């Protein structure tokens, strides 16, 4: 990192001993070591957060790509289904009903439980009491 050899460390130790003195040198070394350790922890934490964000970004890009692939595949399947059925996607009893009934049944979420009243209005069987 800093490329400090043994000779440089020895020189720093001798200067520290002469300037600080032998009584305060051990506590000064402990304090400086604690600062260095705290700085290292901070840099390591920042580095791990950056790596996590880069990983999250890569995952999000992969999800976007997969989502666009799924949309494209669904569109292709829908198009091929429409061409195979001759352009009409309505099947079952709704296709044999009159156009007014088919559209009202497809629009309601309870299309399977919809019935026809005597005056032509559509009613829901969910409102009727259950049969015993």
From TrEMBL:
Basic and acidic residues bias spans: 64-74, 118-132
Biased composition (Low complexity): 83-100
Stretches the record annotates as Disordered: 64-132
GO MF, one annotated term: protein transmembrane transporter activity
UniProt-listed InterPro entries: TatA/B/E, TatB
Subcellular locations according to the entry: Cell membrane; Membrane
UniProt feature, compositional bias: Polar residues: 101-114
Annotated membrane topology: Single-pass membrane protein
Chaperone recorded as keyword: no
GO biological process, one term: protein transport by the Tat complex
GO cellular component: TAT protein transport complex
Coiled-coil features, chain-numbered ranges: none
One of the Pfam families matching this protein, by short name: TatA_B_E
Keywords, ordered alphabetically: Cell membrane, Membrane, Protein transport, Translocation, Transmembrane, Transmembrane helix, Transport
Reported function: Part of the twin-arginine translocation (Tat) system that transports large folded proteins containing a characteristic twin-arginine motif in their signal peptide across membranes. Together with TatC, TatB is part of a receptor directly interacting with Tat signal peptides. TatB may form an oligomeric binding site that transiently accommodates folded Tat precursor proteins before their translocation.
Listed PANTHER family: SEC-INDEPENDENT PROTEIN TRANSLOCASE PROTEIN TATA, CHLOROPLASTIC
Assigned protein family: Belongs to the TatB family.
Subunit relationships: The Tat system comprises two distinct complexes: a TatABC complex, containing multiple copies of TatA, TatB and TatC subunits, and a separate TatA complex, containing only TatA subunits. Substrates initially bind to the TatABC complex, which probably triggers association of the separate TatA complex to form the active translocon.
Protein's name in the database: Sec-independent protein translocase protein TatB
Species: Haliea salexigens
Gene name of the encoded protein: tatB
């Amino acid at each position: 990192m800093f490329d400090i050899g043994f000779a440089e460390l020895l020189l720093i130790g001798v200067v520290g001993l002469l300037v600080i003195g032998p009584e305060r040198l051990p506590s000064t070394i402990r304090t400086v070591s604690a600062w260095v350790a705290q700085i290292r922890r901070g840099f390591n934490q920042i580095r791990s957060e950056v790596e996590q964000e880069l990983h999250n970004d890569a995952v999000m890009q992969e999800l976007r790509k997969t989502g666009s692939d799924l949309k494209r595949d669904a569109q292709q399947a829908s198009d091929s289904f429409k061409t195979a059925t001759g352009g009409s996607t309505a099947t079952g009893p709704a296709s044999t009903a009159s156009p007014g009934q088919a559209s009202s049944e497809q629009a309601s979420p309870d299309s399977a439980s919809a019935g026809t009243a005597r005056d032509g209005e559509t009613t829901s069987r969910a409102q009727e009491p259950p049969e015993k």
